[in-house]
């Protein structure tokens, strides 16, 4: 019975710890500090992406504001954020380009996720974290708001109940 209680307690701790996991990080180690490598006023470090459909996305060719969402399909905070996004006015705004970057995700998983969540914006597979690592060390979802000139306006970590309400340019 004691072993069952220990297993249940460990599982509960794992489930409630959020989506801040980092490769190679064990529960015995101290939780690493959330670092964001871009701040308001910085130029975005990545301006071109290839989406899961093979299309090139060049941020410099759009005069809209942009919302980059760095997420993972398995993360409950990312899933909640996508649900809140698709229910918001922002989702259908013609003045905002939304790009989802799937951290450590592949094309097939992202395509399945897009269908399940009925996403109408481009998704980019970042299987090796080469994109994500230019923005932060841990923590998803990460929302990076860019203005029309591709300067960072605001960065948010979406581990709160409805981070989409904080997306204001």
Automatic annotation (TrEMBL):
<protein>
    <submittedName>
        <fullName>Lipoprotein, putative</fullName>
    </submittedName>
</protein>
<keyword id="KW-0449">Lipoprotein</keyword>
<dbReference type="InterPro" id="IPR036249">
    <property type="entry name" value="Thioredoxin-like_sf"/>
</dbReference>
<dbReference type="Pfam" id="PF08534">
    <property type="entry name" value="Redoxin"/>
</dbReference>
<dbReference type="InterPro" id="IPR013740">
    <property type="entry name" value="Redoxin"/>
</dbReference>
<dbReference type="InterPro" id="IPR050553">
    <property type="entry name" value="Thioredoxin_ResA/DsbE_sf"/>
</dbReference>
<feature type="domain" description="Redoxin">
    <location>
        <begin position="39"/>
        <end position="161"/>
    </location>
</feature>
<feature type="signal peptide">
    <location>
        <begin position="1"/>
        <end position="20"/>
    </location>
</feature>
<keyword id="KW-0732">Signal</keyword>
<dbReference type="GO" id="GO:0016491">
    <property type="term" value="F:oxidoreductase activity"/>
</dbReference>
